[in-house]
Fold this protein.
Amino acid sequence: MIPFRKMHGLGNDFCVFDARQADLGMTPERAARVADRQRGIGCDQVIILEPGNGADVFMRIRNPDGSEAGACGNATRCVASLVADELARDSVTVRTISGDLPVARLPGGLWQADMGAPRLGWQQVPLAAECDTLHVPLALGPVSDPAACSMGNPHATFFVPDLAALDIPTLGPQLERHPIFPDRANIGFAQVLAPDRIRLVIWERGAGMTLACGSGACATIVNAARRGLTSRRASVELPGGVLEMEWRADDHVLMTGPVATSFLGEIAL
Protein backbone atom coordinates (compact mmCIF):
# COMPACT_ATOMS: atom_id res chain seq x y z
CA MET A 1 0.00 0.00 0.00
CA ILE A 2 1.42 3.35 -1.08
CA PRO A 3 0.58 6.46 0.99
CA PHE A 4 -0.69 9.61 -0.68
CA ARG A 5 -1.96 13.03 0.31
CA LYS A 6 -4.99 14.64 -1.32
CA MET A 7 -4.44 18.41 -1.58
CA HIS A 8 -5.98 21.32 -3.43
CA GLY A 9 -5.50 24.96 -4.26
CA LEU A 10 -8.88 26.68 -4.66
CA GLY A 11 -10.46 23.32 -5.51
CA ASN A 12 -7.85 22.42 -8.15
CA ASP A 13 -7.09 19.03 -6.58
CA PHE A 14 -4.09 16.71 -6.57
CA CYS A 15 -3.03 13.28 -5.38
CA VAL A 16 0.51 13.75 -4.10
CA PHE A 17 2.86 10.75 -3.96
CA ASP A 18 6.36 10.77 -2.48
CA ALA A 19 8.93 8.95 -4.64
CA ARG A 20 12.00 10.66 -3.20
CA GLN A 21 13.22 7.50 -1.45
CA ALA A 22 12.12 4.85 -3.96
CA ASP A 23 10.57 4.72 -7.42
CA LEU A 24 6.85 3.99 -7.10
CA GLY A 25 6.39 2.80 -10.67
CA MET A 26 3.86 5.55 -11.35
CA THR A 27 3.41 4.96 -15.06
CA PRO A 28 1.13 7.18 -17.17
CA GLU A 29 -1.45 4.39 -17.13
CA ARG A 30 -1.37 4.09 -13.34
CA ALA A 31 -1.57 7.86 -12.94
CA ALA A 32 -4.66 7.89 -15.15
CA ARG A 33 -6.29 5.22 -12.99
CA VAL A 34 -5.46 7.12 -9.80
CA ALA A 35 -6.99 10.30 -11.26
CA ASP A 36 -10.21 8.57 -12.32
CA ARG A 37 -12.99 10.06 -10.18
CA GLN A 38 -15.21 6.99 -10.47
CA ARG A 39 -12.70 4.13 -10.19
CA GLY A 40 -9.66 5.73 -8.56
CA ILE A 41 -9.02 8.46 -6.00
CA GLY A 42 -9.94 11.26 -8.36
CA CYS A 43 -8.01 14.46 -9.04
CA ASP A 44 -7.12 17.07 -11.63
CA GLN A 45 -3.44 16.05 -11.57
CA VAL A 46 -1.30 13.32 -10.03
CA ILE A 47 1.83 14.80 -8.45
CA ILE A 48 4.97 12.72 -7.86
CA LEU A 49 7.70 14.12 -5.64
CA GLU A 50 11.20 13.11 -6.74
CA PRO A 51 14.73 14.05 -5.59
CA GLY A 52 15.49 17.69 -6.34
CA ASN A 53 19.11 17.23 -7.47
CA GLY A 54 19.96 20.85 -6.72
CA ALA A 55 16.46 22.08 -5.89
CA ASP A 56 14.51 21.25 -2.73
CA VAL A 57 12.24 18.86 -4.61
CA PHE A 58 11.37 17.82 -8.16
CA MET A 59 7.64 17.80 -8.96
CA ARG A 60 6.41 15.55 -11.78
CA ILE A 61 2.89 16.32 -13.00
CA ARG A 62 0.55 13.82 -14.65
CA ASN A 63 -2.80 14.83 -16.14
CA PRO A 64 -5.88 12.59 -15.80
CA ASP A 65 -5.17 11.17 -19.26
CA GLY A 66 -1.65 10.18 -18.16
CA SER A 67 0.11 12.88 -20.18
CA GLU A 68 2.83 14.91 -18.50
CA ALA A 69 2.36 18.63 -17.78
CA GLY A 70 5.19 21.11 -17.60
CA ALA A 71 3.74 23.39 -14.95
CA CYS A 72 0.95 23.60 -12.40
CA GLY A 73 0.81 26.69 -10.25
CA ASN A 74 -1.64 25.45 -7.62
CA ALA A 75 0.27 22.17 -7.22
CA THR A 76 3.52 24.12 -6.91
CA ARG A 77 2.17 25.96 -3.89
CA CYS A 78 0.86 22.73 -2.35
CA VAL A 79 4.16 20.89 -2.80
CA ALA A 80 6.14 23.87 -1.52
CA SER A 81 4.06 23.97 1.66
CA LEU A 82 4.84 20.30 2.36
CA VAL A 83 8.57 20.61 1.73
CA ALA A 84 8.87 23.91 3.61
CA ASP A 85 7.25 22.31 6.66
CA GLU A 86 9.62 19.33 6.41
CA LEU A 87 12.65 21.62 6.23
CA ALA A 88 11.29 24.14 8.78
CA ARG A 89 11.78 26.95 6.26
CA ASP A 90 9.62 29.69 4.80
CA SER A 91 10.90 29.40 1.24
CA VAL A 92 11.80 26.50 -1.05
CA THR A 93 12.51 25.86 -4.72
CA VAL A 94 10.32 23.42 -6.63
CA ARG A 95 11.88 22.00 -9.80
CA THR A 96 9.70 21.01 -12.78
CA ILE A 97 10.48 19.88 -16.31
CA SER A 98 9.90 23.52 -17.32
CA GLY A 99 12.27 25.07 -14.76
CA ASP A 100 12.78 25.98 -11.10
CA LEU A 101 10.01 27.78 -9.21
CA PRO A 102 10.83 29.64 -5.95
CA VAL A 103 7.94 29.66 -3.47
CA ALA A 104 7.61 31.66 -0.24
CA ARG A 105 5.27 31.43 2.75
CA LEU A 106 3.24 34.59 3.41
CA PRO A 107 1.05 35.53 6.38
CA GLY A 108 -2.50 34.22 6.51
CA GLY A 109 -1.78 30.76 5.15
CA LEU A 110 -0.90 32.08 1.70
CA TRP A 111 1.97 30.99 -0.55
CA GLN A 112 3.55 33.00 -3.33
CA ALA A 113 5.13 31.22 -6.30
CA ASP A 114 7.48 32.88 -8.76
CA MET A 115 6.31 31.22 -11.96
CA GLY A 116 9.09 32.73 -14.04
CA ALA A 117 8.89 34.75 -17.22
CA PRO A 118 6.28 34.12 -19.91
CA ARG A 119 7.47 32.82 -23.26
CA LEU A 120 5.88 34.94 -25.93
CA GLY A 121 7.38 33.77 -29.21
CA TRP A 122 5.21 31.65 -31.53
CA GLN A 123 7.78 28.85 -31.46
CA GLN A 124 7.93 29.00 -27.65
CA VAL A 125 4.18 28.56 -27.09
CA PRO A 126 4.38 26.59 -29.47
CA LEU A 127 2.14 27.40 -32.42
CA ALA A 128 2.09 25.49 -35.68
CA ALA A 129 2.84 28.53 -37.84
CA GLU A 130 4.46 31.93 -37.43
CA CYS A 131 2.06 34.59 -36.21
CA ASP A 132 1.67 37.39 -33.69
CA THR A 133 0.98 35.66 -30.36
CA LEU A 134 -0.96 38.71 -29.21
CA HIS A 135 -3.55 38.08 -31.92
CA VAL A 136 -3.67 34.41 -32.90
CA PRO A 137 -5.78 33.79 -36.03
CA LEU A 138 -8.22 31.39 -34.39
CA ALA A 139 -12.00 31.50 -34.06
CA LEU A 140 -14.70 29.05 -33.07
CA GLY A 141 -18.33 29.96 -32.68
CA PRO A 142 -18.64 33.03 -30.43
CA VAL A 143 -14.93 33.29 -29.53
CA SER A 144 -12.02 34.58 -31.60
CA ASP A 145 -8.69 36.42 -31.56
CA PRO A 146 -6.96 34.83 -28.53
CA ALA A 147 -3.58 35.83 -27.16
CA ALA A 148 -1.09 33.04 -26.52
CA CYS A 149 1.94 32.47 -24.35
CA SER A 150 3.69 29.68 -22.50
CA MET A 151 3.99 29.52 -18.72
CA GLY A 152 5.69 26.13 -18.89
CA ASN A 153 2.50 24.92 -20.58
CA PRO A 154 0.96 26.38 -23.76
CA HIS A 155 -1.92 28.76 -23.05
CA ALA A 156 -4.38 30.67 -25.21
CA THR A 157 -6.65 33.31 -23.68
CA PHE A 158 -9.93 34.42 -25.25
CA PHE A 159 -11.24 37.73 -23.89
CA VAL A 160 -15.04 37.72 -23.89
CA PRO A 161 -17.78 40.12 -22.76
CA ASP A 162 -19.85 37.52 -20.88
CA LEU A 163 -18.53 34.19 -19.62
CA ALA A 164 -22.02 33.00 -18.74
CA ALA A 165 -23.00 33.06 -22.41
CA LEU A 166 -20.34 30.49 -23.43
CA ASP A 167 -20.74 26.72 -23.74
CA ILE A 168 -17.23 26.02 -22.48
CA PRO A 169 -17.56 22.20 -22.27
CA THR A 170 -18.22 22.25 -26.03
CA LEU A 171 -15.70 24.92 -27.02
CA GLY A 172 -12.86 23.80 -24.74
CA PRO A 173 -12.00 20.37 -26.15
CA GLN A 174 -12.19 21.57 -29.76
CA LEU A 175 -9.87 24.51 -29.09
CA GLU A 176 -7.47 22.44 -26.96
CA ARG A 177 -6.84 20.15 -29.93
CA HIS A 178 -6.96 22.72 -32.73
CA PRO A 179 -4.18 22.14 -35.29
CA ILE A 180 -2.65 25.53 -34.51
CA PHE A 181 -1.50 24.03 -31.18
CA PRO A 182 0.88 21.15 -32.03
CA ASP A 183 1.20 20.20 -28.34
CA ARG A 184 -2.45 21.00 -27.59
CA ALA A 185 -3.12 23.97 -25.29
CA ASN A 186 -4.80 25.15 -22.12
CA ILE A 187 -7.70 27.39 -23.14
CA GLY A 188 -8.66 30.35 -21.00
CA PHE A 189 -11.92 32.28 -21.26
CA ALA A 190 -11.50 35.64 -19.51
CA GLN A 191 -13.93 38.45 -18.74
CA VAL A 192 -12.24 41.69 -17.66
CA LEU A 193 -14.29 43.23 -14.85
CA ALA A 194 -11.97 46.14 -14.01
CA PRO A 195 -8.33 47.14 -14.63
CA ASP A 196 -7.41 45.09 -11.56
CA ARG A 197 -9.97 42.27 -11.72
CA ILE A 198 -10.54 39.41 -14.17
CA ARG A 199 -13.00 36.53 -14.12
CA LEU A 200 -11.52 33.35 -15.63
CA VAL A 201 -12.60 29.84 -16.57
CA ILE A 202 -9.98 27.38 -17.85
CA TRP A 203 -10.26 24.30 -20.02
CA GLU A 204 -7.05 22.46 -19.10
CA ARG A 205 -5.13 20.37 -21.59
CA GLY A 206 -5.58 16.74 -20.62
CA ALA A 207 -7.83 17.55 -17.65
CA GLY A 208 -10.87 19.50 -18.86
CA MET A 209 -12.62 22.17 -16.79
CA THR A 210 -11.08 22.70 -13.36
CA LEU A 211 -12.04 24.94 -10.44
CA ALA A 212 -8.73 26.79 -10.71
CA CYS A 213 -5.58 26.86 -12.84
CA GLY A 214 -2.52 28.68 -11.57
CA SER A 215 -0.52 28.72 -14.79
CA GLY A 216 -3.72 29.75 -16.59
CA ALA A 217 -4.11 32.72 -14.25
CA CYS A 218 -0.47 33.62 -14.99
CA ALA A 219 -1.07 33.50 -18.74
CA THR A 220 -4.23 35.57 -18.36
CA ILE A 221 -2.60 38.46 -16.48
CA VAL A 222 0.23 38.49 -19.02
CA ASN A 223 -2.09 38.44 -22.03
CA ALA A 224 -4.50 40.98 -20.50
CA ALA A 225 -1.66 43.39 -19.69
CA ARG A 226 -0.16 42.93 -23.17
CA ARG A 227 -3.52 43.84 -24.68
CA GLY A 228 -3.81 46.90 -22.43
CA LEU A 229 -6.95 45.51 -20.80
CA THR A 230 -5.59 45.51 -17.24
CA SER A 231 -2.62 46.66 -15.24
CA ARG A 232 0.19 44.21 -14.45
CA ARG A 233 -1.42 43.43 -11.08
CA ALA A 234 -4.88 41.97 -10.80
CA SER A 235 -7.10 39.62 -8.84
CA VAL A 236 -8.14 36.65 -10.97
CA GLU A 237 -11.52 35.18 -9.99
CA LEU A 238 -11.73 31.46 -10.75
CA PRO A 239 -14.67 29.16 -9.98
CA GLY A 240 -12.83 27.92 -6.88
CA GLY A 241 -11.63 31.25 -5.55
CA VAL A 242 -9.27 34.16 -6.15
CA LEU A 243 -5.57 34.24 -7.03
CA GLU A 244 -3.59 37.45 -6.68
CA MET A 245 -1.39 37.95 -9.73
CA GLU A 246 1.49 40.27 -10.58
CA TRP A 247 3.59 40.46 -13.74
CA ARG A 248 6.65 42.23 -12.35
CA ALA A 249 8.89 44.67 -14.16
CA ASP A 250 11.62 41.99 -14.25
CA ASP A 251 9.22 39.89 -16.39
CA HIS A 252 8.54 37.28 -13.68
CA VAL A 253 4.95 36.38 -12.86
CA LEU A 254 4.03 36.04 -9.16
CA MET A 255 1.00 34.02 -8.09
CA THR A 256 -0.36 34.17 -4.53
CA GLY A 257 -2.99 31.85 -3.11
CA PRO A 258 -3.88 29.29 -0.42
CA VAL A 259 -3.21 25.56 -0.09
CA ALA A 260 -5.17 22.85 1.72
CA THR A 261 -4.92 19.16 2.61
CA SER A 262 -8.18 17.27 2.15
CA PHE A 263 -7.13 13.88 3.53
CA LEU A 264 -4.39 11.23 3.74
CA GLY A 265 -4.77 7.70 2.43
CA GLU A 266 -3.17 4.60 0.97
CA ILE A 267 -3.66 2.89 -2.36
CA ALA A 268 -2.40 -0.27 -4.02
CA LEU A 269 -0.87 0.87 -7.30
In short: Residues 45 and 63 are 5 Å apart (CA to CA).
